[in-house]
């Protein structure tokens, strides 16, 4: 089984680096630059894990966390 990981960070270089590193380790990784983008990616990417930045520019990471869990109560989120 290949685990899917969603990286949510408003700094593009961090998301890109983490995606590359996780990909090298055998994970399928995708990045989102905002809470809104992360919520949209949840439906099509269906991650097993989410790495969520607490401060996402104008978005509040805790509010995004709540919305992610409503979409998928079983997703594991690291902040």
Features:
single chain, 79 residues, alpha/beta, 4-stranded parallel β-sheet, 3 helices, 44% helix
Q: What does this protein look like?
A:
- By secondary structure, the chain is an alpha/beta fold.
- It has three helices and six strands, in the order βαβαβββαβ.
- The protein has helices at residues 12-24, 35-45, 61-71, and strands at residues 4-8, 28-32, 49-52, 55-56, 59-60, 76-78.
- The strands form two sheets. Strands 2-1-3-6 form a four-stranded parallel beta sheet, with helices on both faces. Strands 4-5 form a two-stranded antiparallel sheet.
- β1 (4-8), α1 (12-24) and β2 (28-32) form a beta-alpha-beta unit.
- α2 packs parallel to α3 (61-71).
- The mean pLDDT is 95.
Concise description?
The protein is of the alpha/beta class. About 45% of the residues lie in helices and about 25% in strands. The protein contains three helices and six strands, in the order E-H-E-H-E-E-E-H-E.
Question: How many strand units?
Answer: 6
Computed Rg:
11 Å
Helix count, DSSP H or I runs of 4 or more residues: 3
Helix share bin: 40-55%
What is the chain-wise order of helices and strands?
EHEHEEEHE
Strand arrangement, major sheet = 2-1-3-6
List the helices and strands and how they pair.
Blueprint (H helix, E strand, L loop, with lengths): L3 E5 L3 H13 L3 E5 L2 H11 L3 E4 L2 E2 L2 E2 H11 L4 E3 L1
Parallel strand pairs: 1-2, 1-3, 3-6
Antiparallel strand pairs: 4-5
Helix pairs in contact: 2-3
